[in-house]
Amino acid sequence: MAFLADSLARIKPSATIAVTNKARELKAAGRDVIGLGAGEPDFDTPENIKEAGIRAIREGKTKYTAVDGIPELKAAIAAKFKRENNLTYAPNQITVGTGGKQVLYNALMATLNPGDEVIIPAPYWVSYPEIVALAGATPVEVVGPQESGYKIAPSALEAAITPKTKWLILNSPSNPTGAGYTRAELRAIADVLLRHPHVWIMTDDMYEHLVFDGFEFSTIAEVEPRLYDRTLTVNGVSKAYAMTGWRIGYAGGPAHLIKAIGTIQSQSTSNPSSISQWAAVEALNGPQDFIATNREVFRKRRDLVVSMLNQAKGIVCPNPEGAFYVFPSCAGTIGLTSAGGASITDDESFVTALLEEEGVAVVQGSAFGLAPHFRISYATSTEALEEACTRIQRFCGNLR
Ligand SMILES: Cc1ncc(COP(=O)(O)O)c(C=O)c1O
């Protein structure tokens, strides 16, 4: 009898975490490595939010809480949904988890049976297909090609829907591409979904606040209120509030689904950290002005990275609407040989040679479902980005 569960054979470890670990190892061994693999802001959590966490500890708010969130945080989340998304959710329609990742995980675990299909636009965040597979269901990829700004065509969505489709996962702005769906594009997606009432929508709005050049963020339940009853609107404080380590994510959705998510959570982690929940109350209710300041820093970095990458031989880098990622194509480098003698046969050999020869850690596009590409997270200092892009230019310039 095998010791490990069969379900483990269906999934693989996160490629982004693997790259980050490899970069960390090389650094520890004394190599000069610039890590552009991790998806977290380099900014510190704002002081008022940290203070709220410290206050919670001092005031003894350190005990178990309601499994799916303290009432104060649910109220702050309801106010956020109303204020920013024009969505009304009652407290029993809101769940709080240990990061958006846990909320997405619990929602999929609570709803998927073997044989169910989940439509995942590619390129996708690495965890979606893995969680779906862990639940015993089948991920169905629909590719949004580079020529379409990495967004899926409504006709492609329609063609992928079968009687077994349970969910469509939307993620805008996207990890890994930064692509953001406009209101009109979501409208067209919604029109398809209205024709298929058995399909639910899980929208991952984690990068809502990181949009540039006047792009207006929209979320599908607001664009089409007739989809409200079958949409789970997922969000969190990790990215916008530089709170990745605090582990707070949340969702709004139909009460029966929210209850099922809570049931799963009650038999695994129980409540998210009480201290982090109080810090998240302050994040959502407190001053929001630093978000715009951070956004501007990210925009400048995006401009720098896009411009420098497009000057690298064989690289084509579109200008994304949001998040803190770019997802250039390295198709023009395939078939060439690096200065160090490595054959570039695909995006994986490209990123491996880049790390070994120039000490720049990026993640291969194949991990996100589209090759030959690679993802750069530009949530790191401008100096490091400049140096990293100079090295990428040199690496590509030396390919023969
Ligand atoms: C698209 C997307 N969704 C969800 C998450 C999960 O974020 P967290 O669990 O920190 O809330 C991430 C983090 O990288 C992400 O990129």
Automatic annotation (TrEMBL):
Ranges in coiled-coil conformation: none
Known EC number: 2.6.1.-
Keywords: Aminotransferase, Pyridoxal phosphate, Transferase
Gene Ontology MF terms: L-aspartate:2-oxoglutarate aminotransferase activity
Domain Aminotransferase class I/classII large residue range list: 32-392
Catalysed reaction, written as an equation: L-aspartate + 2-oxoglutarate = oxaloacetate + L-glutamate
Cofactor(s) of this protein: pyridoxal 5'-phosphate
Family recorded in the similarity comment: Belongs to the class-I pyridoxal-phosphate-dependent aminotransferase family.
Protein name (Swiss-Prot/TrEMBL): Aminotransferase
Organism of this sequence: Kaistia geumhonensis
